[in-house]
Amino acid sequence: xxxxxxxxxxxxxxxxxxxxxxxxxxxxxxxxxxxxxxxxxxxxxxxxxxxxxxxxxxxxxxxxxxxxxxxxxxxxxxxxxxxxxxxxxxxxxxxxxxxxxxxxxxxxxxxxxxxxxxxxxxxxxxxxxxxxxxxxxxxxxxxxxxxxxxxxxxxxxxxxxxxxxxxxxxxxxxxxxxxxxxxxxxxxxxxxxxxxxxxxxxxxxxxxxxxxxxxxxxxxxxxxxxxxxxxxxxxxxxxxxxxxxxxxxxxxxxxxxxxxxxxxxxxxxxxxxxxxxxxxxxxxxxxxxxxxxxxxxxxxxxxxxxxxxx
Length: 310
Prior knowledge:
Elements: E1 4-8, E2 11-18, E3 25-29, H1 41-48, E4 53-57, H2 76-84, H3 95-108, E5 114-119, H4 121-132, E6 137-143, H5 157-164, H6 174-188, H7 197-210, H8 216-227, H9 231-234, E7 241-246, H10 254-263, E8 268-272, H11 284-299
Parallel strand pairs: 3-4, 3-5, 5-6, 6-7, 7-8
Antiparallel strand pairs: 1-2, 2-4
Helix pairs in contact: 2-8, 3-4, 6-7
């Protein structure tokens, strides 16, 4: 199916569906400031081969979904000082709104319940979906994500500096914009696999040519910061849950994945040697095997037949 757009939660969401509509659904949620193509077609098709329908979509303020460029980009220094003072900052939207987008997408597609897989910020959206809409979530997989626990260790200082440094304007200098993104991707990659510069360049070019959203990255950071600590919500979860984290992640440290797993009753924790804050193709088999294994706890009987969705 080609990329389509539909109205959900009063905005337009761009999405793409792989596999048969009658198969159990897996919804993939992208991370901070990134587009649905970070879930590559090969990754999606590999899950389809396991018997699933796979849906990826652009979060609000990314890709071909609604852009909130009418909302000013939050001043991040003010945001931090407000939070440190114990006050709730005023932000254009929160992760709760983005959770509503994902649920509305399922509604619009006629999907009663789905397996939810989120990476980085998308992992926190997936956690909120599971806590706020338990009847809609069949299983939860949170990858390279966190709980919002303020006591967790922060990113490596140089990584935080690179992430917060303003990127060049791609409309003025696309090559500089891509070089900025490539340097960051190289820094947060794990050492357990060779960094594939050609793959990263292709991805960055495709993203910038699909859409550039001024201020979108800052609005995502504000949404993340304003959402708070999810641990009390996670303690209420009663579903198959998997937490995947790279042991070399310098952006969201392994302690964050460990905290996520510890906060979800019965969650499985999969720590991957040599994995950073990235998901290279060499790691697809282990990650897809794990997602499918957790999903099968819900979808398949002992005889191997799919359960009928109700």
